[in-house]
Specification:
The protein has a four-stranded antiparallel beta sheet, covered by helices on one side. It is about 25% helix and about 35% strand. It is globular. The protein is built from two helices and four strands, in the order βαββαβ. With about 100 residues, it is an alpha+beta fold.
Amino acid sequence: MVWTYRVTAAARPRLIMRVAQIFDQQLVEIDRLEVVRGRGTTTLRVEIRCDEYLARRIHAKLYRMPDIQHAALANADDDVVSEGELPNPSAPESFDPLTPQP
């Protein structure tokens, strides 16, 4: 089953590495990783494929990490974390990341 984590954390050095290490310790490959950096916070969206027990175990490990402010878990059936949900506070409304910028 596909599971999606949405993690909000204080913007600190090596944050992404520490989050990725949790998945690596559980021998889970990350299918998708999105990072949005705001003022003082970083929002990560991580998508993996595993069973429910392992997904909830990883969720608990994320909550125990220092600097993590919130960690939400959803599966494909819940549809809680949807595409494009991660905000980019520094980008204007009409910003398209795929087009060349001046």
